[in-house]
Amino acid sequence: MLFLILSILCSVTVGVIFKISRKYNANPSQIISFNYIAAIALCYFTFSPNLQELDHNAPLEIYTSVGILLPILFLFLALSIKYMGIAKTDAAQRLSLFIPILAAWLLFNEGFNTYKVIGVLVGFAALLFILKKPSDNAENKWIYPAAVLLGFGIIDILFKKIALYTVVPYTTSLFFVFLIAFAGSILIVLYKLFIAKENFVLKSIPFGILVGVFNFGNILFYLKAHKAFAENPSTVFAGMNMGVIILGTLIGAFFFKEKLSKINILGLFLALIAVVFIFLSQLK
């Protein structure tokens, strides 16, 4: 349970840093690149991973898929915030919960008892109510939050598959994924600098390092939580997403003065109920 709570805290902190960085006009793609520099350094000096441990049976195609998807997904996240607002983007990200939960049933052969079914149904209603957050942006570019929803759902599934491969230490797997993600992010930055003619923004460096520290913690504790709940991956899927929704919405309300409608408050209440049912399902 501790690993899940720490992952939630790190995830929300990453979102807060991105929100603050927009006020300083930091460049999202540059933040993403420096984020991976920090994450790679932390992973290396904390765990001393050895890439020689990657044998021919290692899921290299999964590592590559996650490494490519991560920086691209971060960019879609930034575009979704720009065109659809932070509130709707956060809701779309957490709505991705139901992709891995369905995968837990269809791909990982996890049994669903009555408590888990109720938790999923209540959680779905909660997310829909939170999606009703007001937005000042009238543009309707749903392709961006839709990409965020689908992308985070797929990455959740792929990280579960990485956690299940126990021959290679997951810290080595994580380090390799970060290396691939960094390479992809560099290509994006170079394109934006030399083709799209964007300027390099020095303010992106400290924001990127901060994002990297908490991004590293988020993924690390998320994988540890999956190992702790190896027989019930939907417990981690649900607990992580609901926890981030609740904490993120509260921080938005109290620190960023985001308004909560009655529908939002009902959604938070339903999310709490959903979390209770999901964890009750773990005990049955």
TrEMBL record:
Q: Establish whether keyword Zinc is in the entry.
A: no
Recorded GO CC terms: membrane
Q: Sorted alphabetically, which InterPro entries does this protein's record hold?
A: EamA_dom (IPR000620), EmrE-like (IPR037185)
Question: Could you tell me the keywords of this UniProt record?
Answer: Membrane, Transmembrane, Transmembrane helix
Q: Which SUPFAM superfamilies match?
A: Multidrug resistance efflux transporter EmrE (SSF103481)
- Give the source's domain of life in one word: Bacteria
Every copy of the EamA domain together lies at 2-131
- A Pfam match: EamA
Membrane-spanning parts: 62-79, 91-108, 114-131, 143-168, 174-193, 205-223, 235-256, 263-283
> Per its UniProt record, what PANTHER family does this chain match?
ACYL-MALONYL CONDENSING ENZYME-RELATED (PTHR22911), SOLUTE CARRIER FAMILY 35 MEMBER G2-RELATED (PTHR22911:SF137)
What protein name is recorded for this chain?
EamA-like transporter family protein
